[in-house]
């Protein structure tokens, strides 16, 4: 008699294979472009799409091959006819966690840029794009990476997005993408840089160490834009008084911008705020109930004067001004709030009694331009088509993010960056600050840089740049042009070619 059981199993197996999702493959699209920069025509190649991220799988000690885990979206720009041995390459990403690379890509670094407007000249829909003659492509090839679950990057079928929603897993996946691109494009001997913004600076610092230790891939430099290397400087919670002092210079800068310091020069206001934040305020906070009535009154008066808030408010919050509460409170008498990402922006607040503002105008006023610009650009000019929504900012990623590696301590990459610089004394670091950045305040970043555990002779490897703008300082046109020059100069000086 025929073996009906075996036949049924074979049929079932055949059916499973027929219905099984096809193995994912890279879907990169290549296009050619030109850009005129100071009468010089740059011919470059753009490669856009998703590459498959794989990991070797083992079961019972035996290899099951390299299993596809995710499809990671990137856009790479390479200058035509350039020598890969001398031509730098910069890998760029934003932060969040949960942000795509759209901001750096179309804001300052890429060969095309969004016309988003600024505080005094907002752009109306339907927005537009323009060539970016200040692009970093003049000095370096560029690779923009969207971490898993941002942009068009997604996990493969059957995988959980949470596999990538964490500090270490994120570092490992981005490092593998960088290794793959460097290897496939024969760029191991090229000068290599990482450019990160916001949480992307924490990622970049961690990557500098991981790339060295895991792959022996040593970098020439880090471009840290709106830097946060230690979350403890930003997290307002009981028992951590550090942010209450480190944010004061930024509060003072924003108050100055909105006319709360009269005609005093900004530099003078910042000098006073930094001095108070470094000495008197930390001391007053540490005293607690031991602070005398006279000393408390003096601290309240000084802090109120610097921040533009009333003495009554400063006294009620016990000298501890949380940042979102500040953005909501500063212009309450005008029924307006100021932006967190960029304190120059304001918007109407419909609830005059609200403690936390209902929106961040420095994001809501520009995100439409970036969304329209990229969704047009990726299809019409880069030739890449995908029906998935391009996730600019994913709240799901942010909410699911895990810092389990830092349980019981501050989330920080300062130790990793310090070790990377000691092991690679040629590693240079450029740090860019916006005076009106209320998300990653400049004085907090200065504090962290001063704590790096490196010898004095390596401190010259760190350079800083300041701009009269916010978190995305390139929204401000004069800052964008100057920042482009600063970044290009840094790439040239750190390339060792």
From TrEMBL:
Keywords: Carboxypeptidase, Hydrolase, Protease. It holds the Pfam family Peptidase_S10. Gene3D superfamilies: alpha/beta hydrolase. InterPro entries: AB_hydrolase_fold, Peptidase_S10. Residues 1-11 have a biased composition (Low complexity). It comes from the Bacteria. The keyword Repressor does not apply. One of its GO terms (biological process) is proteolysis. Residues 12-23 have a biased composition (Basic and acidic residues). Signal peptide: none annotated. SUPFAM superfamilies: alpha/beta-Hydrolases. One of its GO terms (molecular function) is serine-type carboxypeptidase activity. Residues 1-26 are annotated as: Disordered. This is Carboxypeptidase C (Cathepsin A).
């Amino acid at each position: 008699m025929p073996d009906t059981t075996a036949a049924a199993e074979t049929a079932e197996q055949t059916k499973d294979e027929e219905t099984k999702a096809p193995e994912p493959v890279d879907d990169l699209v290549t296009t050619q472009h030109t850009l005129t920069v100071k009468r010089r025509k740059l011919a470059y190649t753009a490669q856009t799409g998703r590459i498959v991220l794989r990991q070797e799988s083992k079961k019972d000690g035996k290899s099951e091959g390299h299993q596809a885990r995710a499809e990671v979206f990137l856009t790479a720009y390479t200058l035509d006819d350039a020598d890969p041995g001398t031509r730098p390459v910069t890998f760029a990403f934003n932060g969040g966690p949960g942000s795509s690379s759209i901001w750096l890509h179309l804001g300052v670094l890429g060969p095309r840029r969004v016309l988003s407007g600024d505080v005094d000249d907002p752009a109306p829909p339907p927005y537009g794009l323009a060539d970016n003659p200040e692009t970093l492509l003049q000095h370096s090839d560029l690779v923009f990476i969207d971490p898993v679950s941002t942009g068009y990057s997604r996990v493969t079928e059957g995988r959980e997005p949470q596999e990538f929603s964490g500090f270490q897993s994120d570092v490992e996946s981005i490092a593998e993408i960088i290794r793959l691109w460097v290897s496939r494009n024969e760029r191991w001997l090229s000068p290599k840089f990482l450019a990160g913004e916001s949480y992307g600076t924490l990622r970049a610092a961690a990557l500098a160490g991981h790339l060295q230790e895991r792959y022996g891939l040593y970098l020439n430099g880090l471009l840290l834009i709106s830097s946060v290397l230690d979350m403890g400087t930003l997290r307002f919670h009981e028992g951590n008084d550090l942010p209450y002092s480190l944010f004061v210079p930024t509060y003072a800068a924003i108050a100055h911008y909105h006319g709360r310091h009269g005609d005093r020069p900004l530099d003078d206001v910042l000098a006073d705020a930094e001095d108070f934040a470094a000495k008197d305020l930390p001391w007053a906070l540490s005293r607690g109930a031991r602070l005398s009535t006279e000393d408390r009154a003096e601290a309240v008066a000084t802090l109120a004067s610097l921040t533009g808030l009333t003495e009554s408010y400063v006294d009620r919050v016990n000298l501890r001004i949380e940042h979102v509460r500040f953005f909501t409170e500063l212009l309450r008498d005008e029924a307006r709030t100021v932006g967190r990402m960029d304190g120059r922006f304001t918007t109407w607040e419909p609830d005059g009694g609200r403690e936390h503002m209902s929106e961040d105008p420095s994001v809501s006023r520009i995100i439409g331009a970036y969304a329209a610009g990229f969704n047009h650009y990726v299809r019409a000019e880069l030739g890449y088509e995908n029906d998935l929504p391009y996730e600019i900012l994913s709240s799901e990623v942010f909410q699911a993010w895990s810092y389990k590696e830092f349980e019981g301590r501050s989330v920080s990459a300062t130790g990793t960056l310090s070790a990377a610089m000691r092991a690679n004394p040629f590693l240079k670091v450029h740090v860019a600050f916006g005076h009106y950045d209320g998300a990653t305040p400049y004085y907090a970043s200065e504090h962290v840089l001063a704590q790096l555990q490196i010898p004095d002779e390596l401190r010259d490897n760190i350079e800083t740049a300041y701009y009269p703008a916010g978190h995305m300082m390139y929204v401000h046109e004069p800052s964008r042009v100057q920042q482009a020059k600063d970044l290009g100069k840094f790439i040239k000086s750190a390339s060792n070619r």
